[in-house]
């Protein structure tokens, strides 16, 4: 519910809906790349200069809403969208945490902070996918009031020890390029080699990579 999200943030970051408004967070799993993105490219669906992954995700979510929620008002915010104030439309990791989808590990989760004045960013970890997933969108259903019957699900604390949390945050902040933070817990899936290559390639060079793969992009 929107109230779960708003209650952990300052008023300037609140979403403008009643507290019991129903909302859902959309995650993508590693198989998205082969099962959705490659077919998207093969259909020649990628248009213009927008990021191909973003276009693919938007197309998939739009199709899902049309099929599953026809006639229902659904307000969609994507992880890359910004407000005129340059703030994100929603804080993706906070949304995933309060929804119980993934645990958002932050500096405050470490009792004996070893980093001094250094700035440390937090990261979400999924109990089955580790860090091998992405938070893609927030769906808000303005006309659906969840009420007390919707029970809040606690985010799964899959990195319980202080030592592991320190290791996680250091991997994410200092060595994020080596992908190792994603394996902080045993995982059921991980990104394929092509997917790792794609996301490791600077955005400005990805079109050339896709052409090398035979995409019309």
UniProtKB/TrEMBL annotation:
* Xref: InterPro entries: MMACHC
Alphabetically sorted, this entry's keywords are:
Cobalamin, Cobalt, Cytoplasm, FAD, Flavoprotein, FMN, NADP, Oxidoreductase
Please tell me whether the keyword Nucleus is annotated for this protein: no
Q: Where can this protein be found?
A: Cytoplasm
Can you name the source organism? Albula goreensis
Show the stretches that span the lipid bilayer: none
What are the recorded Gene Ontology BP terms? cobalamin metabolic process
Reading the lineage from the top rank, the first entry is Eukaryota
Q: Name one GO cellular component term.
A: cytoplasm
Do the record's keywords include Cytoplasm? yes
Q: Which residues form the signal peptide?
A: none
| Reaction equations catalysed | apo-[alkylcobalamin reductase] + methylcob(III)alamin + glutathione = S-methyl glutathione + cob(I)alamin-[alkylcobalamin reductase] + H(+); apo-[alkylcobalamin reductase] + adenosylcob(III)alamin + glutathione = S-adenosylglutathione + cob(I)alamin-[alkylcobalamin reductase] + H(+); apo-[alkylcobalamin reductase] + an R-cob(III)alamin + glutathione = cob(I)alamin-[alkylcobalamin reductase] + an S-substituted glutathione + H(+); 2 cob(II)alamin-[cyanocobalamin reductase] + 2 hydrogen cyanide + NADP(+) = 2 cyanocob(III)alamin + 2 apo-[cyanocobalamin reductase] + NADPH + H(+)
EC number(s) from the headed UniProt entry: 1.16.1.6, 2.5.1.151
Question: Which cofactors, if any, are listed as required?
Answer: FMN; FAD
Question: Know the name of this protein?
Answer: Cyanocobalamin reductase / alkylcobalamin dealkylase
Family of the protein in this entry: Belongs to the MMACHC family.
GO molecular function of the protein, one example?
cobalamin binding
């Amino acid at each position: 519910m929107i109230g779960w999200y708003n209650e952990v943030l300052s008023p300037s970051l609140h979403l403008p809906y009643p507290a019991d408004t129903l909302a859902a967070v959309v995650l993508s799993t590693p198989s998205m790349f082969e099962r959705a993105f490659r077919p998207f490219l093969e259909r020649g669906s990628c248009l213009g200069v927008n990021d191909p992954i973003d276009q693919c995700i938007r197309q998939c979510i739009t199709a899902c809403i049309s099929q599953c929620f026809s006639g229902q008002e659904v307000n969609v915010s994507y992880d890359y969208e910004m407000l005129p104030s340059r703030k994100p439309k929603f804080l993706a990791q906070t949304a995933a945490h309060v929804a119980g989808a993934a645990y958002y590990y932050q500096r405050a989760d470490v009792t004996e902070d070893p980093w001094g004045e250094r700035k440390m960013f937090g990261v979400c970890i999924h109990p089955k996918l580790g860090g091998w997933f992405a938070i893609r969108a927030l769906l808000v259903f303005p006309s659906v009031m969840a009420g007390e019957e919707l029970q809040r699900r606690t985010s799964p604390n899959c990195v319980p020890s202080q030592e592991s949390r320190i290791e996680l945050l250091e991997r994410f902040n200092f060595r994020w390029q080596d992908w190792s933070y994603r394996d902080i817990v045993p995982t059921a899936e991980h990104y394929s080699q092509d997917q790792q290559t794609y996301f490791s390639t600077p955005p400005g060079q990805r079109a050339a990579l896709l052409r090398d793969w035979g995409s019309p992009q």
